[in-house]
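Dear H.,

Thanks for agreeing to be a second pair of eyes. The structure we're designing against is below in C-alpha coordinate form, covering all 161 positions.
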Protein backbone atom coordinates (compact mmCIF):
# COMPACT_ATOMS: atom_id res chain seq x y z
CA UNK A 1 0.00 0.00 0.00
CA UNK A 2 2.87 2.35 0.81
CA UNK A 3 4.28 1.85 -2.71
CA UNK A 4 0.94 2.81 -4.27
CA UNK A 5 0.82 6.00 -2.20
CA UNK A 6 4.42 6.79 -3.15
CA UNK A 7 3.77 6.30 -6.88
CA UNK A 8 0.54 8.32 -6.65
CA UNK A 9 2.32 11.22 -4.94
CA UNK A 10 5.12 11.16 -7.52
CA UNK A 11 2.61 11.12 -10.40
CA UNK A 12 0.58 13.98 -8.94
CA UNK A 13 3.73 15.99 -8.24
CA UNK A 14 5.14 15.44 -11.72
CA UNK A 15 1.85 16.39 -13.32
CA UNK A 16 1.75 19.57 -11.22
CA UNK A 17 5.27 20.44 -12.44
CA UNK A 18 4.08 19.99 -16.01
CA UNK A 19 1.05 22.19 -15.26
CA UNK A 20 3.30 24.95 -13.90
CA UNK A 21 5.29 24.69 -17.14
CA UNK A 22 2.08 24.94 -19.19
CA UNK A 23 0.99 28.05 -17.23
CA UNK A 24 4.39 29.60 -17.95
CA UNK A 25 4.02 28.83 -21.67
CA UNK A 26 0.50 30.23 -21.74
CA UNK A 27 1.69 33.47 -20.12
CA UNK A 28 4.38 33.67 -22.81
CA UNK A 29 1.65 33.50 -25.45
CA UNK A 30 2.20 29.87 -26.44
CA UNK A 31 -0.92 27.84 -27.14
CA UNK A 32 -1.25 24.95 -24.70
CA UNK A 33 -3.45 21.94 -24.28
CA UNK A 34 -7.14 22.45 -23.57
CA UNK A 35 -8.01 19.80 -21.00
CA UNK A 36 -11.68 20.09 -21.91
CA UNK A 37 -10.80 18.38 -25.20
CA UNK A 38 -9.25 15.45 -23.32
CA UNK A 39 -12.44 15.23 -21.25
CA UNK A 40 -14.53 15.45 -24.41
CA UNK A 41 -12.52 12.68 -26.06
CA UNK A 42 -12.79 10.44 -22.99
CA UNK A 43 -16.49 11.21 -22.68
CA UNK A 44 -17.06 10.13 -26.28
CA UNK A 45 -14.76 7.13 -25.75
CA UNK A 46 -16.99 5.98 -22.89
CA UNK A 47 -19.91 6.22 -25.33
CA UNK A 48 -18.08 4.03 -27.86
CA UNK A 49 -16.56 6.64 -30.17
CA UNK A 50 -12.75 6.56 -30.40
CA UNK A 51 -11.83 8.92 -33.23
CA UNK A 52 -12.96 12.35 -34.38
CA UNK A 53 -12.29 14.50 -37.41
CA UNK A 54 -11.84 17.40 -34.97
CA UNK A 55 -12.36 17.08 -31.25
CA UNK A 56 -12.96 20.84 -31.09
CA UNK A 57 -15.99 20.45 -33.36
CA UNK A 58 -17.31 17.30 -31.68
CA UNK A 59 -20.33 17.54 -29.41
CA UNK A 60 -19.37 18.81 -25.94
CA UNK A 61 -19.70 16.38 -23.03
CA UNK A 62 -21.21 17.48 -19.70
CA UNK A 63 -18.39 17.90 -17.19
CA UNK A 64 -15.69 17.60 -19.84
CA UNK A 65 -13.35 20.10 -18.17
CA UNK A 66 -13.39 18.21 -14.86
CA UNK A 67 -13.12 14.88 -16.68
CA UNK A 68 -10.12 16.19 -18.63
CA UNK A 69 -8.30 17.35 -15.52
CA UNK A 70 -9.01 14.11 -13.65
CA UNK A 71 -7.76 12.12 -16.63
CA UNK A 72 -4.65 14.32 -16.90
CA UNK A 73 -3.68 13.54 -13.30
CA UNK A 74 -4.66 9.86 -13.56
CA UNK A 75 -2.45 9.52 -16.63
CA UNK A 76 0.36 11.22 -14.72
CA UNK A 77 0.04 8.64 -11.95
CA UNK A 78 0.00 5.82 -14.51
CA UNK A 79 3.18 7.18 -16.09
CA UNK A 80 4.80 7.37 -12.64
CA UNK A 81 3.90 3.71 -12.20
CA UNK A 82 5.56 3.02 -15.56
CA UNK A 83 8.74 4.68 -14.32
CA UNK A 84 8.72 2.58 -11.14
CA UNK A 85 8.04 -0.56 -13.18
CA UNK A 86 11.05 0.23 -15.39
CA UNK A 87 13.47 1.58 -12.77
CA UNK A 88 12.27 -0.47 -9.79
CA UNK A 89 10.68 0.59 -6.53
CA UNK A 90 14.13 1.28 -5.06
CA UNK A 91 14.39 4.23 -7.46
CA UNK A 92 11.79 6.06 -5.34
CA UNK A 93 14.13 5.94 -2.32
CA UNK A 94 17.12 7.25 -4.30
CA UNK A 95 15.75 8.94 -7.41
CA UNK A 96 18.06 9.82 -10.27
CA UNK A 97 17.33 12.21 -13.10
CA UNK A 98 18.11 10.11 -16.18
CA UNK A 99 15.49 7.35 -15.82
CA UNK A 100 12.82 9.91 -14.95
CA UNK A 101 13.52 12.13 -17.95
CA UNK A 102 13.85 9.16 -20.33
CA UNK A 103 10.51 7.73 -19.21
CA UNK A 104 8.97 11.20 -19.39
CA UNK A 105 10.23 11.57 -22.95
CA UNK A 106 8.95 8.10 -23.86
CA UNK A 107 5.46 9.01 -22.65
CA UNK A 108 5.17 11.43 -25.57
CA UNK A 109 4.20 8.36 -27.59
CA UNK A 110 0.74 8.47 -25.99
CA UNK A 111 -0.31 11.83 -27.41
CA UNK A 112 1.58 11.52 -30.69
CA UNK A 113 0.41 7.99 -31.53
CA UNK A 114 -2.95 7.67 -29.77
CA UNK A 115 -4.60 10.82 -28.49
CA UNK A 116 -3.76 13.31 -31.26
CA UNK A 117 -4.75 10.93 -34.06
CA UNK A 118 -7.97 10.06 -32.23
CA UNK A 119 -8.76 13.75 -31.75
CA UNK A 120 -8.25 14.54 -35.42
CA UNK A 121 -4.71 15.96 -35.39
CA UNK A 122 -3.16 12.91 -37.08
CA UNK A 123 -0.16 10.80 -36.16
CA UNK A 124 2.69 13.02 -34.99
CA UNK A 125 0.38 16.04 -35.41
CA UNK A 126 0.53 15.53 -39.18
CA UNK A 127 -2.86 17.18 -39.78
CA UNK A 128 -1.91 20.38 -37.97
CA UNK A 129 -0.43 23.46 -39.68
CA UNK A 130 2.94 22.96 -37.93
CA UNK A 131 3.51 19.25 -37.23
CA UNK A 132 7.22 19.45 -36.35
CA UNK A 133 6.69 22.39 -34.01
CA UNK A 134 3.80 20.58 -32.31
CA UNK A 135 5.80 17.36 -31.94
CA UNK A 136 8.75 19.24 -30.44
CA UNK A 137 6.39 21.08 -28.09
CA UNK A 138 4.90 17.75 -26.97
CA UNK A 139 8.37 16.27 -26.47
CA UNK A 140 9.40 19.30 -24.41
CA UNK A 141 6.26 19.10 -22.28
CA UNK A 142 6.82 15.41 -21.61
CA UNK A 143 10.50 16.04 -20.83
CA UNK A 144 9.37 18.59 -18.26
CA UNK A 145 7.01 15.92 -16.90
CA UNK A 146 10.03 13.60 -16.63
CA UNK A 147 11.91 16.28 -14.71
CA UNK A 148 8.81 16.53 -12.52
CA UNK A 149 8.96 12.79 -11.84
CA UNK A 150 12.47 13.23 -10.49
CA UNK A 151 11.66 16.40 -8.51
CA UNK A 152 8.51 14.90 -6.99
CA UNK A 153 10.36 11.73 -5.94
CA UNK A 154 13.25 13.75 -4.50
CA UNK A 155 10.85 16.02 -2.59
CA UNK A 156 8.85 13.07 -1.32
CA UNK A 157 12.05 11.41 -0.12
CA UNK A 158 13.14 14.60 1.62
CA UNK A 159 9.74 15.10 3.30
CA UNK A 160 9.47 11.50 4.52
CA UNK A 161 12.99 11.25 5.99
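And this is the sequence the design step returned. I haven't edited it by hand at all.
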Amino acid sequence: MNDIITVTCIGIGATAVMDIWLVFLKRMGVATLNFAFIGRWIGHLLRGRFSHDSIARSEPIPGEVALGWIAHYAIGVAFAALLVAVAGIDWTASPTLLPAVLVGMATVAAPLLVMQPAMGAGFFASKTPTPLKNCLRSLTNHSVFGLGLFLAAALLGWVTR
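Two observations from my side: The chain is about 70% helix and 0% strand. The longest helix spans residues 131-160.

Warmly,
E.
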